[in-house]
Amino acid sequence: MTGLEIAATPRSAMLAPAAMQHIAVVDDEADIRDTVGEYLELKGYRVSRCDGGATLRALLEADTVDLVLLDVAMPEEDGLSIARYLGANTDVAFVMVTAAGEVVDRIVGLELGADDYLAKPVDLRELLARIKTVLRRGARRAAKGGSEAVETPQRVMFGDCTLDTNAHRLIGPDGADIPITAMEFDLLRAFAEHPNRVLSRDQLLDMAHNRGWEPFDRSIDIRIARLRRKIEPDPAKPQVIKTVRGAGYMFALPG
């Protein structure tokens, strides 16, 4: 994870509470792991340092991790391979760090379920802001899955699938769970809250991201394509999430 920019941190800002949320920093360079890890620890997070995919997998088996910060460019098992594992086998949020200009890596990372990405050089203050946003979104979703009332119906049926908004589950026609990332769930919930209505990309970003940074302009398209592969009988001819040319997308529900 080369290309790190370290911003001076006022002493008074070093004790911001984070409720000891657990972050795994995955990078093959020890100095980067230590620099990022020490910064996040000063901000109140519990940090585990991993030098690659094997170390991360062992950590995930032994402990609960709230977020993984994952470098793409690593010599043994690259970050995209690790991201593929995280997206397919866990519900842990992860943020990817890519080289500036590596658009393909960003697109692939989003397709694999990354919750966010950062391009190098990375400013630690921006990194912290992105991490807080991803973790806040997860906390809001967990709260809504408990006692807090939500506007969305608890179970929304579409096609052969059912979205259980309280349990944060996407259920297939056979009753089995379909693996879904945090961002995919937020998108589906946003659609379910506004059925049969055209939503622009900006509206979807506001509803699903709820963050103030300028997003990668293809992130919604990539995630919707990924969702279609999970919920549409024929993703090439979508019947649930329909494209409205020049306007955005519509979540088509009967009656």
TrEMBL record:
Residues 153-253 bind DNA. The modification 4-aspartylphosphate is found at residue 71. Residues 153-253 form the OmpR/PhoB-type domain. Residues 22-135 form the Response regulatory domain. SMART domains: REC (SM00448), Trans_reg_C (SM00862). Its main location: cytoplasm. One of its GO terms (cellular component) is cytosol. It is found in: Cytoplasm. GO terms for molecular function: phosphorelay response regulator activity; transcription cis-regulatory region binding. This is Regulatory protein VirG. It comes from Microbaculum marinisediminis.
